[in-house]
Amino acid sequence: MASRYAGHAMGLGEAMKVAGLGCRSGVPVHEVLAALTAALAEHGLVGSALGALATIPIRAQEPALQEAARLLSLPLTVPSAEDLQQAETLTHSSASLDATGLACASEAAAIAAVGRNGILLGPRLVIGNVTCAIAICKEGS
């Protein structure tokens, strides 16, 4: 899979937005969609505002994440391990650190997917067994 997503065509000044997702194995797609909807609403956004979904390598083949991407007609991107490690997260979860080696998988995936100049809109949101964080990057940043 590609390590970055260039985004859909955007107008000048429009920011690329990526939803980073973390989850437990076997999570149902409705939990993924609920977490996405809640995280977007938290920031006054709708699904059509997203350019991609992102996750970490160990979740890249998770059926619910792939199905959510398909239902939303968005690519599911997987940033490189190096980019994930360099991502600065707002949340520091010992459970995530133990399971993935990342302080927060969803935040790291979101920020790594938008690139070096990306920023998180806020800390990750937890809905059931899914975490979701939204990151943005201004075009040309």
TrEMBL record:
InterPro entries: CbiG_hydrolase, CobE/GbiG_C, CobE/GbiG_C_sf. Residues 18-135 form the CobE/GbiG C-terminal domain. Pfam families: CbiG_C. GO terms for biological process: cobalamin biosynthetic process. This is Cobalamin biosynthesis protein CbiG.
